[in-house]
Design goal:
Number of domains: 2
Strand content: 5-15%
Bound molecules: 2-acetamido-2-deoxy-1-O-phosphono-alpha-D-glucopyranose, magnesium ion
CATH topology of the largest domain: Aminoglycoside 3'-phosphotransferase, Chain: A, domain 2
Helix content: 40-55%
Shape: globular
CATH architecture of the largest domain: Alpha-Beta Complex
CATH class of the largest domain: Alpha Beta
Radius of gyration: 20 Å
Oligomer: single chain
Number of helices: 12
Distance between the termini: 52 Å
Length: 359
């Protein structure tokens, strides 16, 4: 707490720090809730940026500043109320930047959004609101004047993720390849089909748009009525296929089990969530989506469990160097759960296509 409060003191906050405690369940950055003593001062969220992963913190923060500035402007133009709960605000540090480097770690501070909740799971009604919200998010960012950098190069590039997996297999750094052969074969069998997005892009048929690229449901803040207030965790906002936002949301919410469920019987693809989310997303995004984007939404639903499987498995093979783990075979358990989800998505593909065509 002492150490953390020294870091908070480098930022231009209002009020006096009363308490700092861990917040949220992200797998990459460390996040804390900073409570202030005075009722008139806002609370804050302190984050240690994982700069092994986000290596260009200056680019990272300038992306996020551009995105939040643009959204704030849009909301103001629309005459929205309660804007401070609908877009993140970053607090400048002593150096005038929105991050502080303490010679080892990079830190940033933002206003805590009061009376807002995040969820690990949602019902169909909330999924519908979330679909509308992500469509709006992409829509608002469509005319952002700034050029956003790729904060993690090739982040959702399926060809690149497969190449990383193949390199991990070739190196076999942790001696785990033999044990995961079944999953490697299953993933390779689908590899060509799953790289469809990159092929369409090269053929000039599929655009990149500004996307969030980490649309796990716990990256959304809901108000007391289930309406989406805002989208958080903006580190990965960058140009990408819209498949990213659509697919990753369903990967996390339409899973009837947990991302790392040990009991694979719990893991299935929930079509009620799919239908509600897709309905909301198409309502707010249809105006700018191309037919090729709409047709490939079922592909997007399969792509994200698949990509996550490839990423978790590569990390397992590498000896767990990327994702935080809670126990030794955590990345393998995650791989298995995501693979089960993929199989369930595949079984529902004809039903998804029919639903989308009927919209
Ligand atoms: C990471 O930081 P967090 O937990 O929201 C990861 C996502 C993965 C997700 C898997 C920068 O997101 O891409 O989908 O874990 N973020 C990064 O749960 O790699
Ligand atoms: Mg998160």
């Amino acid at each position: 707490m002492n150490n953390l409060s020294t870091i908070v003191s480098r930022f231009r906050i209002q009020g006096t720090v009363a308490d700092i405690r861990p917040l949220g369940s992200g797998l990459i950055n460390d996040t804390y809730h900073v409570a202030t003593l005075e009722a008139t001062a806002p609370d804050y969220v302190l984050q240690r940026i994982n700069h092994a992963i986000f290596q260009d913190v200056d680019m990272l923060q300038s992306n996020i500043e551009a995105v939040t500035r643009h959204i704030r402007r849009k909301l103001t133009e629309q005459g929205a109320d309660d804007i401070d709960r609908k877009v993140l605000s970053f607090i400048p540090a002593d150096n005038g930047k929105t991050y502080w480097f303490d010679t080892v770690n990079y830190w940033r501070l933002m206003r805590f959004i009061p009376r807002a909740k995040t969820y690990e799971t949602v019902n169909p009604e909330y999924s519908y609101y979330a679909g509308v919200a992500f469509g709006n998010f992409q829509n608002m960012l469509a005319d952002i004047p700034d050029t956003l950098g790729e904060t993690i190069p090739n982040f959702h590039n399926m060809e690149f993720r497969l190449q990383q997996l193949r390199e991990a297999v070739a190196a076999d750094a942790a001696g785990r390849v033999a044990e995961v052969r079944y999953y490697l074969d299953e993933l390779e069998r689908r590899a060509d089909d799953m790289c469809r997005g990159e092929r369409l892009y090269r053929a000039g048929e599929l655009p990149k748009r500004i996307c969030h690229c980490d649309t796990k449901v716990n990256n959304m803040m809901f108000d007391e009525h289930g309406q989406v207030l805002c989208v958080i965790d903006l580190d990965t906002v960058m140009p990408n296929f819209i498949f990213s936002d659509f697919g990753d949301f369903l990967r996390t919410t339409a899973n009837t089990g947990a991302e790392d469920d040990r009991n694979l019987d719990n893991v299935n693809f929930n079509m009620d969530i799919f239908r509600a989310f897709t309905k909301g997303y198409l309502e707010s995004a249809r105006a700018f989506l191309l037919p090729v984007e709409i047709e490939n939404l079922p592909y997007a639903a399969a792509l994200f469990p698949y990509m996550q499987c490839v990423r978790f498995l590569a990390d397992y093979i590498n000896g767990d160097t990327y994702y935080k783990i809670q126990y030794p075979d955590h990345n393998l358990i995650r791989t298995k759960a995501q693979f089960k989800l993929l199989q369930s998505v595949e079984a529902h593909t004809p039903e998804m296509k029919a639903f989308i065509e009927a919209q």
